[in-house]
Please model this.
Amino acid sequence: MNLLGNFINRTRDISTRHHVVFWLVYFSFNTLRWGSYYDDLLFSLKGNLIEFPLHIGLCYFTIYYLIPKFIYSRKFILFSSIVIVAIFVMALLKYLLTYWLISHNVWPEGPQQTTDFTFNYAIVMMLGEFYVLSFVTAIKITADFLRESSRVSRLEKAQMETELRFLRSQISPHFFFNTLNNIYSLSLEQSTKTPDVVLKLSELMRYLVYETKPNKQSLKKELLCIQNYLELERIRYGELLNIDLNLSGSLENKKIPPMLLIPFVENAFKHGANKNVGSVSIKIDFTVEDEFLYFKISNTATSKSYVPKHKNPGGIGIDNVKKRLELGYNKEEYQLDIHNFKDEFVVDLKLKLR
Model:
């Protein structure tokens, strides 16, 4: 397992040095191979000096441009058409360069002397280009697969560590102690709110302890956890707290990494309500459109809670969310914007749902 792990780590970033070594080895092998076949090493060297820049250009054009642009978007017919045209152009260039720079007999290994760009010559040269392209593409796909496997493994490990840190630090014992004190006060007053508060605290703790183990959780359950959290904070702050929660869109069959949004909510209280004097306003917009979740939360702030932009205003909670987003999603699948104004702290998150 250690050997496999070391190999995967080496394939994460293929440096320029690896590319150079690969092409030099391949060039040397091909030169010796055809030099032995022709019994003319110099002729083979000249031919490969013409062919290999064409091979390299076609391969990198395919694996770094065509595949990401067309294969990942499932445009297979367009991809195939462009590849065929590109291979034909490479074969034509090879013919012209060989004819002008080396020999008018452009196909010495062929069945007969060839000086024209014939159909048989074109087919054989295109098959040769296709062979080289397939070989290099297979290496690239294998490297990408190993890199993706490594990324998934790192994500699973990071999620476990993040969830443990979240349980130990984000939902702090201080919050639970305050909530229990509020429940105790309500019980002394024989308030009718007491059963509801106990139930919400129980639901929140059950979610945090038992339902955060899967990599993805129902968006409904995540929202319910947030609502329970908000209701408990209402008990703590009473009339001083004004929460505006707006929901829109369908939550059916939508999933999200568990506890991904709660750090933003907790941060609003930690750096907003806990540091303000007088009334506090927290606004949450929760919108689902097509495949994306648009989550926005803002809280009022005072000069005491303002953090200069060169410092981190969110602490470990938001840092953990950023790390989970980077490991769990591609760059085009999410966008996180954090605005730290003197009178307001705003978080905007656009996230692709799965």
